[in-house]
Amino acid sequence: MAQKTISVRTVVAVGIGSALVFVLMRFVAVPTGVPNTNLNLGIAVLSVFAAIFGPVAGLLIGFIAHTLTDLTFGFGIWWTWVIADAIYGLVIGIFWKLYRVESGGFGVKEAVLFNVIQIVTNAAAWAVIASTLDVLIYQEPADKVYLQGLVSGALNALVVLILGTILLAGFSRTRTKAGSLKAE
């Protein structure tokens, strides 16, 4: 039996996606007023890459970009939030074929599906997973981390709803729709 390996296309996507998400998370972060919580444009790029390249790319991009961001901030790696970003990328990527971005079929139905999935996943990743792990692992005060998680989840969902949907729709329009070419 042949082993399935990660494709060169996916490896390149992980490299480019990680770099883009890192730069956006690190240098285009807008403070929210809630401690250690920023408006994050990188989440839209992570969502786009996961929606186009699948769950392995989404997981790795979320993990690598968030780890690099934490390393360069100088306060250490906050593994609970790294895990949340990686899980977010994985879940968005699991449904990548349903979005039909590569086939040029990302329409209203696919945009609604994508946004339902990303909103639920953002809520789960930030308001539940990251916050609960912060309480369990780092013994952080629950009221503080759940507020951070709720704010992060809501802002991420809003950024992906607007920017992520626009980027996916634009990219999908550059793809040839399946069955659109006719033989003469």
Could you give the topology of this structure?
Elements: H1 8-27, E1 30-31, E2 38-39, H2 42-53, H3 55-73, H4 79-94, H5 96-99, H6 108-138, H7 142-173
Antiparallel strand pairs: 1-2
What do these coordinates show?
The protein has 184 residues and is an all-alpha fold. It has one domain: Arp2/3 complex 21 kDa subunit ARPC3. It is 73% helix and 2% strand. The chain contains 7 helices and 2 strands, in the order αββαααααα. A two-stranded antiparallel ribbon has the order 1-2. A hairpin with a 6-residue loop joins strand 1 and strand 2 (38-39). Helix 2 crosses helix 4 (79-94) and helix 2 packs across helix 7. The longest helix is centred in the C-terminal third of the chain and has 32 residues, at 142-173. The chain is globular, with a radius of gyration of 17 Å. The protein starts with 7 loop residues before the first helix and ends in an 11-residue tail after the last helix. The relative contact order is 0.14. The mean pLDDT is 94.
Low-pLDDT windows of residues: none
Strand order across the largest sheet: 1-2
- Beta strand count: 2
Categorize the overall geometry. globular
CATH class: Mainly Alpha
How would a crystallographer describe the biggest sheet?
Answer: 2 strands, antiparallel
- What integer value in Å does the Rg equal? 17 Å
Report the mean per-residue pLDDT as an integer: 94
Strand content: under 5%
Counted by DSSP, the helix tally is: 7
CATH hierarchy: architecture: Orthogonal Bundle
Structural class: mainly alpha
Give, in order, the helices and strands: HEEHHHHHH
Helix content: over 70%
